[in-house]
Protein 1
Amino acid sequence: MLKAVILIGGPQKGTRFRPLSFEVPKPLFPVAGVPMIQHHIEACAQVPGMQEILLIGFYQPDEALTRFLEAAQQEFHLPVRYLQEFAPLGTGGGLYHFRDQILAGGPEAFFVLNADVCSDFPLSAMLDAHRHQPHPFLLLGTTANRTQSLNYGCIVENPQTHEVLHYVEKPSTFVSDVINCGIYLFSPEALKPLGDVFQRNQQDGQLEDSSGLWRGAGTIRLEQDVFSALAGQGQIYVYLTEGIWSQIKSAGSALYASRLYLGQYQLTHPERLAKHTPGGPRIRGNVYIHPTAKVAPSAVLGPNVSIGEGVTVGEGVRLRESIVLHGATLQEHTCVLHSIVGWGSTVGRWARVEGTPNDPNPNDPRAHMDSESLFKDGKLLPAITILGCRVRIPAEVLILNSIVLPHKELSRSFTNQIIL
Ligand SMILES: Nc1nc2c(ncn2[C@@H]2O[C@H](COP(=O)(O)OP(=O)(O)O[C@H]3O[C@H](CO)[C@@H](O)[C@H](O)[C@@H]3O)[C@@H](O)[C@H]2O)c(=O)[nH]1
């Protein structure tokens, strides 16, 4: 019997995801037409023997989360429960705090997945590796280029045995090009070292982080407190993947992840991809259209377009590399490229909403999305355009490389601006 835990964080997290995380908790933001963590749940539900999926975070349970859990349980015929931390407990504290719930029923092992990653989740392959040679911790690893590796947990492995010999979380200088994907398979014994860290922290009281922040004694950082501490002791192993993988930290990376998942749908969910039908809109490449959306036949969509519930797309609209969220309206002949159009927003006729993609270098197979900061040298960097919820864009204007906060009613064109 197996279980899975998804670490969903909480409201103070996901700051790079604003203004989109104002409206829905980041783990529920739709990527390729379904909530971000539905991809995780689908992958877990496919592993034979999966008994229960637990979401651990510090969000107050709200209507959206409750509805999502109910729908997921029905669809996957599995208990999917939310366990709320009383305070942010870090990536390991919640696992230890809720250990009784995780171990209830005696699972052979449990997966732990960061919510903010996009992957093809090679969970069955990890399970096979674990069953072949059981160890307390199995980490999924992938490669990154030298510069970008510094943004992740870096793993030095024994190439023959795949034992993790050395682990450094977000090092300041190059350590290894093998990085931690935030996808793990733990055996029940893995909770013992977490308990040791917990006991030590209780004795030491409040601790100061390397960043100078105080963290409560219940906090456990899986990466520094456990992986770094136990590396080289025959307890942690890495399973390397060449499959798709990306972090989802910002809106730009959500758009990139959407492209990766839409590509995956060719194999996993061909029914979710829109097809060109006589009298329907022109479809180019991978496009998701929610069944309730109304799309005019002369619109041209794709590649990498995802259209949410109740969206209206008018005649002559051109949409490419974009996500249009629930209830938005694109009036006739608008052009939306490399953008996210927020819930209930309206883009007026002949308006152009355009962003600049920040995708990984296609000539570097080890490249990932840059952990985009919005500014460099005091200047706003060109990035995808984001319209927050219920924004109104008038007819015949250009909105380029801009972030428009919710409920704004614009009256003219804007370029390279954050519109507050
Ligand atoms: N329940 C809970 N979840 C948390 C907490 N803090 C973070 N998380 C969740 O844990 C995951 C990791 O979050 P971060 O702490 O922001 O770490 P990171 O910068 O994403 O880096 C981690 O993931 C990388 C891969 O994406 C790894 O490379 C890196 O080593 C590390 O594990 C996210 O899904 C986040 O929601 C917490 O206090 N409680």
Protein 2
Amino acid sequence: MTTTGSSTSLYALKLSDILFLSLAVWLISKLVSRLRQNLNLAPLKGPPRESLIFGVLKHVNQAPDSGAVYEEWSAKYGPVYQIPGVLGSKRVVLMDPKAVAHFYARETTTYVQTGMSKSFIKRMFGNGILVAEGDSHKRQRKALTPAFSNTAIRRLTAVFYDSAYKLKTMWDGMIESNPDGQVIDVQSWMNRVSLDSIGIAGFSHDFNSLAGEASSVSDLFDTFAGLKPPPKTLISKMLAPLTLIIFLLGTVFPIVLSLPTERSKLMKKLRADTTEIADVLLGKTRKEKELGLVDEKGDRSIVGLLIKAEDPNSALRLSKEEISAQMTTLLLAGYETTSISLTWALVELCLQPHIQAKLREELSRVSGDPTWDQLTSATDIPYLDAVVQETLRMHPPLGETVRVAATDDVVPLSSPLSLSSSSSSSTTTSSSQTSGVAIPKGTSITIPIRGINRSEAFWGEDAKSFRPERWLENGAGIPDAAKEVSGHRHLLTFVDGPRTCLGKGFALAEFKAVLSVLIRNYTFEFVMDGEDKVPPKIEVHRSILPRPKIEGQQGARVPLRVRRV
Ligand code: HEM
């Protein structure tokens, strides 16, 4: 008995020793690698640490315009600077166009998702293209690309118009009984247009959300957008006030993201539900294919192409898990981003009714619905193009890219950068200036997409104003400094390089088709009570991606008065 007891306690002691030693080794290795990074990193200027735990990240996350914060620091410390991150870590912020282009060109190889992003995306979207790196990313991208070719999108244009006209039927019914216009939460309707479009175009599946059919995808997104009260358990209630803290700590310790917060539980459910939908859709299409119900040659839906990629003899074969994750990714990527962009466009057009009128006037001169050729041209319906571009510049759904260096690198600069003290960097041109910034392996890098898109240094003094005219005049409206920024029409909204948005053509065609139907048929204005008629304040609601909301509304609601033209 005694022997057994002592051997148990000896075993327990050994186990605790091992645990303690492992923890100590892990902590020391983290500290050593952080020290190595900090020592090898060029002595960049940057704002002082505000908090020992969060650095300045809490300040950035809580700012009403995080882009403006990065822009202010860039004006003060130069276009490449460092900011204090969580628990003594440092992040390098790139706002120099040459450095940004260099960075995006090396996405998925030299620069990869952080542990937190990987954990977040895997939980939400599965192990698909968004987390793939290097050769695996190349392989998945090659398999998916044909689904987004010009020919494919041209054929999908009818789907976007179908959705827009279904919405019109519903709205006409609502407005009919209210000739002075109907107050409509346009954001929820933009969600429905986007969801039904991606369902049909991506999987030949009609979610029928425009006709009011409920689906778990829209239910979950609505919960994230604060439009439905989430189910609350005691533990998640207790963790709710800590959501931001847990999120920030997750940048260093991704494991804390697994804590049962309301958000993490919703994410888990979202993943489970979208995977279920993906599996059902996949099964249905496979069966149709077996029964010869799908025109194999003609089927260019995303699912059709994914199923073709399943061919065991194909070099581009994707695993079943990858197929399910790609479908989830496409469903979610095609739904949130486009819906947010359409909503922002309507908000901006209400803030400046003369721009709305000018757009309507241009569209009234187009006979019938614009064709795909007209939608994709920047010059056929130039003001529509300018309004869409300006919306994407001002309101990129993804505000920043955060990555970590997988290997040591040197980032080139457009012009020499002043360092905070004399540098030991090999690329130093003088004691206080450098032509390239040494980035040690493990360094976190931030590209402030929103900050660069709206920066006065690139876009001029009126950078923060919604002014579609800057896109006209044969490009003369785009300042030379902005032309230095690589990316779709000098914007980083779709990022750049190997991870450039695959659905860019899809999104632009859908955005323009839906907006043209809305503006030709309806006028939009804010609901303004009282004598003064001051437009309401527009706030940002933190959902999966930040969404616009009108001040005072619960959740991401954007009620507008809609009248028939
Ligand atoms: C206005 C609408 C859209 C915007 C602003 C947008 C923006 C973006 C951005 C910034 C990324 C890079 C994400 C990252 O760095 O991790 C991305 C990737 C992606 N987007 Fe979009 N997107 C839009 C619409 C769409 C649509 C409609 C689809 C599909 C139907 C789509 C499919 C994808 C895919 C598959 C990727 C992953 C690409 C890769 O990892 O290689 N997007 N998008």
